[in-house]
Amino acid sequence: MSRKSLKLGIIGGGQLGMFIAKSAMNQKIVPYVYSDTQDAPAKKYAHKIIYGKFDDKEKLSVFFSEVDVITYEFENISTRTLKLIKGEKKIYPPLNALSIAQDRKKEKNFFKKNSIKHAETFYINSSDDLKKYNFKFPSIIKTARFGYDGKGQKIINSIHELKKAWESFNRVSCVVEEKINLKKELSIVIGRDYQGNISYYPSFRNIHKNHILHKTFSPSRVNNKIEDELIGIAKKIISKLSYVGVLTIEFFIDHNNNIYVNEIAPRVHNSGHITQDTFNWSQFDLHVMTVAGLLAPSIKRKNNGVMLNLIGNDIKKIKSLINKPSFMKFLKKKRYLYGKKHIKDGRKMGHINFYGKS
């Protein structure tokens, strides 16, 4: 099938889906979008959009019947539903990787099995597990599933706080992790094609505010030894998963320069937005190429830069934000607004890339 006639189905109509659709369109691949809301940023570039719930087998089946290959912009989709209706259609990234990323317990077991260093963990599935608790404090309790942007997690400093937190999460399965003495948060965005060729971006340094990504710096300025280790771990993970598409890996670095993998995201990522203006191919281009059956391209840096997220009411303060002294050293800036109608606290409304130092 020629690239021109290929129809790419994108599950999810948010900003990541929007950028995937735009990249597909630019590459002469036809983007179809499945969204659960009419207020879908991705409809701006969709050749066709179908609305329905993400567990609606009938509507998803119709969507699948109209496209050649399927991808998705977020993790919280039922792999069971997708398996039931996929038929012969290819879904990338593969569902085994999605299943692992959806469940922190599976994710930690994957890290353990493959000797990938991560924070020590303790699992809570019942009140009996609380009686056996012998873990250190402070630590972090996280719901095993459906957590993002700090949701479904709390710092705990005692057994009492642990019990309270677990109760507040409605006693669902949880993972308790040691709290790392954090020096830096980094991410690697890496892609792999169907032939096993790998392309990646050098590491990004991330700053969070209220558990939501605030800024991303490219390059990260870590030393060469750490950079090589990060890339090596990322290549190992993406290969072990027999992955196709873009994978994002979040890392913690402690004050002794120990590297821990925090989590994996089987998709394009907020921290990869900086690639839109600092590399020859963006993370969205890399994702579309690899899931559409093309070979992973050679990635080359064009500029250094910083990405600033516009969260909630930041969308009303763009003029004052872009004039901050820390951004004045960059020659160029580009705004990416998502077109969301309603402003909410913690909602990602857009981002600005600053790049090309003076």
Structure characterization notes:
- The chain contains eleven helices and 18 strands.
- With 358 residues, it is α+β, with helices and mostly antiparallel strands.
- The strands form three sheets. Strands 10, 11, 12, 13, 14, 15, 16, 17 and 18 form a nine-stranded antiparallel β-sheet that branches.
- Strand 12 and strand 13 form a beta hairpin.
- Helix 1 packs across helix 10, helix 2 crosses helix 3 and helix 4 packs across helix 5.
- The longest helix has 17 residues.
- It starts with 6 loop residues before the first strand and ends with a strand.
User: Low-confidence stretches at least 5 residues in length (pLDDT < 50)?
Assistant: none
Shape: globular
Helix content: 25-40%
Order of helices and strands: EHEEHEHEHHEHEEHEEEEEHEEHHEHEE
Biggest pleated-sheet summary: 9 strands, antiparallel
Return the structural class.
Answer: alpha+beta
Q: CATH class of the largest domain, anyone?
A: Alpha Beta
User: What fold name stands as the CATH topology of the largest domain?
Assistant: D-amino Acid Aminotransferase, Chain A, domain 1
Total number of strands: 18
Distance between the termini: 45 Å
Proportion of β residues?
25-35%
Give the full name of the CATH homologous superfamily of the largest domain.
ATP-grasp fold, B domain
**Which CATH architecture of the largest domain?**
2-Layer Sandwich
Mean pLDDT: 94
Rg on CA atoms, Å: 20 Å
**Whole-number tally of structural domains:** 3
Number of contiguous helices: 11
